[in-house]
Amino acid sequence: MAFTFNFDIPLQTEETNDKENKDDNAKDVDLKCSDASATVPTKMKNAIEHEPLLDPLSHIENWVPETVTIGALPPLLCLNESVFEKTAPEREDSEEILAKTLNQKSDLITGVYEGGLKIWECTYDLLQYIDDEGETFTGKRVLDLGCGAGLLGILALKRGAIKVDFQDYNSTVIEQLTVPNVFLNCEDDDDDDETEEQNSSPPSKRKALNASQKLLDRCGFFSGDWNSFLTLVRNKTLSKYDIIFTSETIYNTDYYSSLHNVFCGLLAEDGIVYLATKSHYFGVGGGLHLFEKFVEENKVFQTKYLKDVEQGLKRHVVSLTFKK
Ligand SMILES: C[S@@+](CC[C@H](N)C(=O)[O-])C[C@H]1O[C@@H](n2cnc3c(N)ncnc32)[C@H](O)[C@@H]1O
C-alpha cells in the first residue's frame, strides 16, 4: 500500500497545550503584521527544538537511500518513503503518525500529521528554479519551513549557508526523516579538524564525529506549530533569516495567519521567502489565489511570480519580500 494524496480534515489532535500556546502567542505583539490574528485549530502541537544524536543513522533500522538529481545541483540523498510504511510497526513514533496515516490512508490529518513524510512535487519545482537561477547560499541564514524531508535546506547547507534551521509540524518527521537526511547528505562535507575529547577514538570514528558536530553547529531542528515555533525562535535569538523556503504549505487557509506571522517575525528586512505551491488544493480549500489575497490584505509583503508549471494541476514558485 502506498501513501496517497488524500486529505483528512479536520480531526481531533491528541495534545492539549491550548493555554500555554495562547499565552506564548500573546507575547508576539511587535510583529509588523498585527492584524494577521491567529485562527488556527486550538489543539496544535507546541514547538520544541530537537537535539540530534551525533550518529542518527545508526539508530534507524532498515533505511534505504534514494537520490534526487536535478540539473546541475549536487545529488541529494533521502530516505525512501516507502520504507516508512513497511517498517512502521518497529519505528519509534510517539506521535503514532505512521500508524494513523496508514490506517486512514491519508497524507494530511489536520493538527495531527501535516504531510512531512513524503516529498511533495513543488519541492522539485523549487529545486529546479534554484538550478535554473544558479543560486548559491554562501553566508546566508536559511529556514526550511514545513521542511518534511528537508531537501531545500540540505541544498542550502551544501551550497554554503552558514545556518539552516529545519521546521516540521511533526517531531517524528524531524527525528526519523529530516535529521537522518541531513546527515546522509552532509556528513562528509567537512575537513579533518579534531577536538581533544575525540582524540581517543579511532581515526575514522573521530573524523565522523567531528564532521557531525560541525554540521550540527550549522543546523537547528524544530517541530510544532508555526505560532509557537515563532515564539520559540524569537526567544532564542534576535537573528533573522535571509531566505525562507516553504513548499506546499498553503493548503489550509486556517494556517495563513500563523504562516504569515512567521514570515513577518523571522524574515530579515532584505530577505526573501520562496514559496512553492499548487494553484489549488482540492479537498482542502487553500491555494495560491487565496493566500495572495491574504497577503495583499495584510499589506506587509509584495509577491512576485518566479516560475509557473502548467502540466496537470498548475504549480508556481513565488517570492515574498517586504514592501519598501
Ligand atoms: C504538505 S507538507 C510539505 C512538505 C515539504 N515541504 C515538501 O514539499 O515535500 C506540509 C508541511 O508544512 C508543515 N506544516 C503545515 N501546517 C503547519 C502548521 N500549522 N504548523 C507547523 N507546520 C505546518 C508540515 O510540517 C509539513 O511538513
Automatic annotation (TrEMBL):
It is found in: Cytoplasm; Nucleus. Keywords: Cytoplasm, Methyltransferase, Nucleus, S-adenosyl-L-methionine, Transferase. Its main location: cytoplasm. Pfam families: Methyltransf_23 (PF13489). This is protein-histidine N-methyltransferase. One of its GO terms (molecular function) is protein-L-histidine N-tele-methyltransferase activity. GO terms for cellular component: cytoplasm; nucleus. Its EC number is 2.1.1.85. Residues 16-27 have a biased composition (Basic and acidic residues). One of its GO terms (biological process) is methylation. It is an enzyme of class 2 (transferase). SUPFAM superfamilies: S-adenosyl-L-methionine-dependent methyltransferases. Residues 1-27 are annotated as: Disordered. Belongs to the methyltransferase superfamily. METTL18 family. CDD domains: AdoMet_MTases. It comes from Phoxinus phoxinus. InterPro entries: Methyltransf_16, SAM-dependent_MTases_sf.
